[in-house]
Amino acid sequence: MNTTKSSKKNKGPEKTAVAADLRRIITAQREFYASGQTRDIAFRRQLLINLKIMIRDNEELILDALRADLGKSHREGYITEIGIVEQELNHTLRNLRLWNSPKLTRTPFYMLPAASYKLRHPRGLVMIFSSWNYPFQLAIMPLIASIAAGNCTILKLSENAPNTSKLLCELIGRYFDRECVAAYMDSFEAIKAIKREQFGMIFYTGGPAVARIVAKAAADKLTPVVLELGGKSPCIVDKTANLRLAAKRIVAGKLINAGQTCVAPDYLFVESSVKDELLGYIKEYHDKFCTEDPCENGFYPKIVNRMHFDRLRSYLADGDILMGGEANEDTGRISLTLMERIDKDSKLMSEEIFGPILPIFEFTDIDAVISTLSKRPKSLALYLFTNSKSTRAAVLGGLDFGCGCVNDTVMQTANPHLPFGGIGESGIGKYHGKAGFNTFTTESSVLKSSSYFDLNPLRYPPFDDFYSFSKILLRYFT
């Protein structure tokens, strides 16, 4: 399959071939879906097993590609990309038949004899846009849900993680027939296809700017869209928290993938009376986790490319640095940096940082923090460290967010029983586990009435004889 990177120079016969190849994939998948084979649970299970075999057979190649794109060690690459995908695969294989089975629901007594139930159906032809920061996990996790749901799927992989994306294109082509699953890398042609073709759903992971382009393109065909975005996820630490444990988990959550994680703590509110103690613990655990200079540490991931490196480095002048601040152009790494007294016009205040920089703000009144956060766009994640039940109730009850943790960071994403997704500007729709299966299917409601008995005269015209009785039933007994 041609996976040529889209660019202004990529025109003429080669570009035409890329566009034609995508058209052929779409036609083949549409025809295959119409054959009905993907509706068979055994067929879906076999595709998931093929995916499992693909990962096991090529684990080292995948880890090497992640290392080349993001500087991830094999251990971090396995835990944050391959391991979580294998967990999702096993969970889906165990539960697929149950998720797909008809679900009985109640039927009002005046409709009897009848039965009511709900069915799950595939959406059809689905396109999945994956992101560069977790180029394996964020491609394969939604693919698992799409296959389990019985869809045919086109994976639009990120050009910003070329090694992992090219490898996935090759592996998907080797382990799957492309009328079921195909991989692709050209964003320009993918957007054109969304405008031109009717898809069952578009699933997008990435930033809000491209999300708006994708959603606008999908709107032309009234195609449903799921958007997994991000935003500025706050972290709050009050004086009742276990400060040592809070510091340990905040540092761990921020160091993963060098902060290039959509659910990483984006900024920190700490109660003034415990600020110095917390910062001391943060430095202690940073030094423990990074036993040498992070910018020279081979186990510490790098910033994905020069554009993002320069963007993050420019932020270092927008406030006072409390810890860190080192940046190495040669290795592409930036150390974990704590900052305070941020310039009010800095993008650190308005945009998702997506890197290892953590602004610090003090507070004395948790209600003031809640009031401040409630006026900001709804975050993808929220992290609260407290042992106060009243504070926990006030924060969780007073703020809207997609997912989060109490006394932890990031770990909510590893639980397949917890739906993952944003709210408002941080995203639309949920996935992981059963939530993913539900997102990639549609629900049909069915009322099965008896063909032997007809006990409900209220439903037939002219309605005069039972009008008063109908009002009583519908008003008080529904």
Mean pLDDT: 94
**Main pleated-sheet profile:** 7 strands, mixed
> Using only CA atoms, what is the Rg?
25 Å
The percent of residues in helical segments reads 40-55%
CATH architecture of the largest domain: 3-Layer(aba) Sandwich
CATH first level of the largest domain: which class? Answer: Alpha Beta
Count of alpha and pi helical runs = 15
What's the CATH H-level superfamily name of the largest domain? Answer: Aldehyde Dehydrogenase, Chain A, domain 1
Find the structural class using helix and strand composition. Answer: alpha/beta
* Poorly predicted runs of 5 or more residues: 1-10
Number of domains: 2
Strand content: 15-25%
Query: How many beta-strand elements?
Result: 18
Separation, N- and C-terminal Cα atoms: 57 Å
Structural shape: globular
